[in-house]
Amino acid sequence: MAEKLLIRNLRKGREEAYRQVIEEYGNKLLKTCYLILKDREEAEDVVQETFIKVFKKIDTFKEKSGLYTWIYAIALNISRDRMRMKQDILELKDEWIGNDNVESQVEMNIDKELLRKEIFEMNSLYREVLVLFYFEELSIKEISNLLNEKEGTIKSKLFRGRNILKESLLKGGQ
Description:
This protein is mainly α. The longest helix is centred in the N-terminal third of the chain and has 23 residues. Helix 2 crosses helix 7. It has nine helices and no strands.
């Protein structure tokens, strides 16, 4: 109910609604964009650009998802665009590596700083899904909707990303 009121106030151009959106989602967006882009200034630019788009395009929000999910989708798209400008996209073959117990091993045996470093080193294809799943605690279904990809594709990326991360962590982050 509060979200609907917030959306209504955004559509009416009320300044307090703008402030509320920035206060509620700004730090979360910054953290996610930073984890994806590996550059604080770039992440800040993306967050700023995201809010500008949100405020300008609020009338196009169809409310099929939560406001937060819609805002994240915008931020992720902007982040992807920025990454495309910086690097060539690598084509990755579908490979299944490792065993079924990766998640529990990773969760039980890692140093968060090392984890952050290793996630930064990963290809953005996997980094995005891992950040959304573990740091933003979104479900596979939510990530699927957010990235506009099939749930099976998200599960596959999550599985491969975990295995790549596991291999890297087992090597001591080298």
